[in-house]
Amino acid sequence: MRAPPNRLGAEMRWTMPCPCCGARGIARAMLQTSALCWTVDFQCDRVTCGHTYRTELTMQPAAPVQKVARRDTLQLFDDLPLAESVQVGDSPRGNGDNDG
Q: Is the pTM of this model over 0.85?
């Protein structure tokens, strides 16, 4: 789990105080368990502590979440006419080679 760089170009880390010693705990892994819920694993940054702990993040939207229908996707080369096919080794038409 990598955070995008901030405006100054430095990478931002998601941190939470260690429940054991109070030092900085850094998020190491995140698993989405539902549309609005994640399980996040943290590791204490203090070497002598080394505590690992798991938290759960649940978002509660102000308004109900509405599912948006996915748009249809085009298959590769859907825009080519069926009568026109390209063979391997064929040169494109009108490129100036052997036009006389």
A: no
